[in-house]
Amino acid sequence: MSSDDGKKLDFVKAIASDGDVILVVGEQKVELRVHSQCLISASKVFGAMLGPNWSEGQNLSKNSPKEIPLIEDDAKALYTICCVVHHRNDILPERISPRELLQIAIEADKYDLRTALLFAKAQWLQRKNITDMMELAYLMAAAFLFDDMDMFIEHSQALILQHQDSYIELLADSTLSQILPANTPHLLEERRNRMRAEIGEIMLRETKNSCSCGWGKSRSDSYRDLLYEYTPLRILGTPISKVVERIQSISYDGNRQYHASTSRYDKDYYHEPAKYIATLAEKLEKAKRRVSLCLDCVQGSGETESCRFEHEEFYYRFN
């Protein structure tokens, strides 16, 4: 935490004005006055620290609050946590950046505060149109510490779909490298390459799903042009999300298209664009599910068979 952050928090001496404990946090020694019972009920670690068996927990009094030094902790993160466990929503920060959230997750992991922050972190972990790779990585790491499977998958999937650069730079961040398993960048790269293969297969299959009427031929030609545009080498330099957008935006007739039968034994029928769009969306969602990176993937060998999250089996079955 910078000195500026320390100044911003300097006024925060009374999260609880009648608190019996003052947490002296960080190198800036920011003082947070709190109720010991709120910390004890929220955290087993604080429960032991402020219990009768430790000197910190003895002779606590609101008239003479005891100072407890927490020099290695992050003052802004502990301030936010204390606001939550003291129900001080009136002074809770309105905006928490992904980096700040990661610091909160680190403190929550250290002091066993996951349950106390269960509902707050559900809001904090929402992506809210974040696209920066490092910020997504901070959110993913925070979800990892909170053991939040759904949010970990969502943020790792965003990294897979939205970025074409190497994930190795995630290891250059000292905080991320200490939290995320060392195989995380490699698994992200592997899943991204799988998704590229899935997308290529979808485009290839759609070039062959033609028919004798103009609607089907036009759609197949559009996929053929797209497949030529995104060759295996060209797709390496393009975020997968952009290719998916192109697939979804291929022109189609928004009205029912009459299809005359070429055989007297078959009936004439209408193409249903809405049904085609729904089928395409299902193919894309199944592909995303197959390549999703979950908590069990990064904590294990990367194989999906034993994951709590049900991955689709990875092979091409689109019909």
From TrEMBL:
<dbReference type="InterPro" id="IPR011333">
    <property type="entry name" value="SKP1/BTB/POZ_sf"/>
</dbReference>
<protein>
    <recommendedName>
        <fullName>BTB domain-containing protein</fullName>
    </recommendedName>
</protein>
